[in-house]
Amino acid sequence: MARVSMTVDGTNYVDEVEPRTLLVHHLRERLGKVGTLIGCDTSNCGACTVHLDGVSVKSCAVLAVQADGADITTVEGLAHDGELHPMQKAFHENHGLQCGFCTPGMIMQSIDLLGENPHPSEEQVRHGLEGNLCRCTGYQNIVKAVQAAAQAMKPGGDSLRSPSETGAVPTGDAPTSTSVDPIAQTAKVGE
Ligand code: FES
Ligand code: FES
After folding, report:
1. Which atom belonging to ligand 1 lies closest to the Cα atom of 59?
2. 137 φ/ψ angles, rounded to the nearest 5 degrees
3. Are 80 and 163 in contact (CB under 8 A)?
4. What is the arithmetic mean of pLDDT over 99-120?
5. Cβ atoms of 96 and 29 closer than 8 Å
6. 179 alpha carbon – ligand 2 mean position (Å)
7. Is the same domain home to 121 and 95?
8. Co-location of 183 and 149 in the same domain
9. How would you classify residue 188: left for phi > 0, otherwise alpha for psi between -120 and 50, otherwise beta?
10. Same domain, 91 and 63
11. I want to staple 112 with a disulfide (CB 3.0 to 4.6 A). Which of 47, 56, 58, 170 is the partner?
């Protein structure tokens, strides 16, 4: 077993994991972050996309031990004080989902995309999302949603990151000391 410490959606977790444990399994099964989905487990579909130190990654392609010390944001960490992230709003308002299975990964990848390119063309959106598969929408409304989010946001990539990724979360909103989720508590180091 290996000891890992990571901040997920503003909370620090310490746990022991098998070296072969995938980050997506750790997030879902140990930390209860079931908003991050598994569509393929083979890094093809993008449903498991999260931000690792501010950059989108497919969490089925990362070992939990590789995320030791990382700051991770999942789709569950985007909304703050009851307010959806602009990208979440844009997907909602532009009907950018049907069954919703691809949506958490699409949203995380789209935020990363706009962080790199705040005003992408339709072609650039499609290119930026080519690693995320949707079996329902035909992608048309997903592209519309991303471009609507781009319009809604100020120029500059930083405003498109979640507050926790920009360091904008007041310390009162997120525990700064090790605070282990009840689901992970059974494996807390020292117990
Ligand atoms: Fe990770 Fe499909 S579950 S890419
Ligand atoms: Fe169903 Fe994308 S909305 S897979």
Report:
1. 1
2. -85, -20
3. yes
4. 97
5. no
6. 34
7. yes
8. no
9. beta
10. no
11. 56
Nearest CA among 59, 92, 84 for reference residue 74: 59
Q: State both tokens at 56.
A: 């989108």
Q: Which numbered ligand comes closest to the C-alpha of 56? A: 1
With a 6 Å cutoff on the Cβ, whether 40 touches ligand 2 is: no
Query: Six-digit token pair at 115?
Result: 């962080």
Using pLDDT thresholds of 50, 70 and 90, give the confidence band for residue 136: very high
For residue 176, how many C-alpha atoms fall within 13 Å in the half-sphere facing its CB? 5
- Reported as a single tens digit per residue, the pLDDT across 44-97 is 999 999 999 999 999 999 999 999 999 999 999 999 999 999 999 999 999 999
- Residue 48 sits in a domain whose CATH number is 3.10.20.30
From the list 68, 71, 50, 74, the residue with the least C-alpha distance to 5 is 68
Examine the domain organization and report whether 96 and 153 are in the same domain. yes
Residue whose structure tokens are 């598994």: 38
Query: What's the 120 CA to ligand 2 centre distance in angstroms?
Result: 22
Looking at the fold, whether 120 and 167 belong to one and the same domain comes out as: no
CATH at residue 150:
1.10.150.120
pTM: 0.84
Range of the domain at 129: 86-160
Q: How many domains does the chain have?
A: 2
35: amino acid identity, one letter:
G
Both 119 and 153 in one domain: the answer is yes
91 and 152 inside one domain: yes
